[in-house]
Amino acid sequence: MKTRSADLLIVGAGPVGLLCAYLAHRCGLRAVVVDKSEGPLEVGRADALNARTLQLLEVAGLFDELYPLGKPCNTSSVWADGKFVSRQSAWWDELEGCLHKHFLMLGQSHFEKLLDEKLRTAGVPARRSTSVERIEVTERGCLTLLSDGTRVESSYVIGADGSHSFVRGHFEIPFEIVRPEIVWAVIDGVIETDFPKVPEIIVCQAETSDVAWIPREGKIDRFYVRMDKPEFTFEEALAKINRALRPHSVKFREIEWYSRFSVKESVAERFSAHDRVFLAGDACHIHSVNGGQGLNTGISDAFNLVWKLDRVLKSAASPALLRTYESERKPVAESVIAASGELVRSTKFSATGTHARDYVEIVRKRAGNITGMGIRYGESGLAGSRLFDFEVREGTKAPTRLYSLLDYARFTVLVFGEGEPDFDVPADAKVVRVSAKERPDGYWSERSPYANRAILVRPDSYIETVSEVRG
Ligand SMILES: Cc1cc2nc3c(=O)[nH]c(=O)nc-3n(C[C@H](O)[C@H](O)[C@H](O)COP(=O)(O)OP(=O)(O)OC[C@H]3O[C@@H](n4cnc5c(N)ncnc54)[C@H](O)[C@@H]3O)c2cc1C
């Protein structure tokens, strides 16, 4: 029997597991990622990356390749009685400290394929057609048996194995599921229509609000159709779409993906077991797709977790740091469930019969979750908040984004002013000085919101500590 050793064994090469493996590789960790499937997703599932995800992708060096593939979208409109009755984007336009104030409409398959290819090129490809049969936590770490007979000795295991998680079940982590009995059809395809087509998220009002039209990258459009019964045909879903879009109609020239799903909601009681095994993504939270938060939340889980494992493995940080993964991410998962749950129920129930308008109002109210920009760790203050992004310049060069100076493998100390931070600078931190005035060399920004402050930024671009700059 072959035995391999690794820092991390990652179960599941969906978007979250692939991202964990990629971030681990960037940190210089040895990660083995296994998946029972033969390859990355080809079509369907998540359709939007939110503004916070776009910032995180910048830090991981993935933004420049993904961004051109998608379609920006920041507007939610309501179609009722044969016309648009509202169009709103204020919650995106008013975002501060963010340069991409919109969703990037982009299918999950693009995300998975890029990461799969990156791992392959880096010489650490996902091990496909391989599942996990047993995991034991030992004194030194974890011992995992794979279906091909290989044993993997690793310091930690990440269970990124989706909503039916083997890892969660194996460690008997409770995952009580709420089923609100709401069933959707989802159709991705190339359409023909006389509708005045716009690249906006269109929420339609008929008797209730049972159709949403989502713009997608390339030639594809997506429709979500609430069907209110477990069994239905494609023709019934199409009839609902055409009823909602009256007096216009839609025909599908090509169908790329057609699926149905019933809404399920749950957050795992614990996000870890024995301080050695961690859950991420759908393995620890599932909810309705409304608000587009599933993939985005899983991506933030990965960013939150991997640097902590890296610090404990390589920089002798206290294992107590790993406990902050659950204390930070579980409340976020709970808030995501509250937001998506309120959205999905509003499509069916409205006291005033204005379901679609109610829906957009909930989007406005829950914008912190939906844009991802309202997520913070801790109650208040700069520590625990996301670092704002803004343009900085290096000498006379073209402006660059502050986030492009961050490095996921390290803490960054940003010094906005002429002096020194009033906190201990981690030995391996990257120190970047940003002057408040134009200068011929070095970084400068006249619009920094952090004048005369020094900021210790975590690898996942949340603020760890702030101080005045000492002269
Ligand atoms: C119709 C639909 C629309 C959606 N729309 C959105 C959206 O607009 N925005 C959004 O953010 N999210 C959306 N989501 C949710 C999103 O797709 C999921 O949140 C996301 O896929 C979760 O990623 P994951 O890596 O955690 O899990 P998964 O994508 O489920 O990946 C888990 C992986 O683990 C593997 N695996 C499972 N068990 C084992 C085992 N024992 N051994 C080895 N491998 C194993 C599986 O093969 C799989 O590849 C949507 C989902 C659906 C179904």
Relative helix content = 25-40%
CATH topology of the domain at 3-69 and 106-177 and 266-351 and 362-371: FAD/NAD(P)-binding domain
Task: Please count the helical segments.
Answer: 11
CATH top level of the domain at 3-69 and 106-177 and 266-351 and 362-371 is: Alpha Beta
**Architecture of the domain at 3-69 and 106-177 and 266-351 and 362-371, according to CATH?**
3-Layer(bba) Sandwich
| Poorly predicted tracts of residues | none
Q: Name the structural class.
A: alpha+beta
Strand order within the widest beta sheet? 21-20-25-24-22-26-27-23
Largest sheet: 8 strands, mixed
Average pLDDT, rounded to a whole number, is 94
Rg (CA only): 23 Å
Q: Count of DSSP E strands?
A: 27
Distance between the termini: 62 Å
Bound molecules: flavin-adenine dinucleotide
Range of strand content: 25-35%
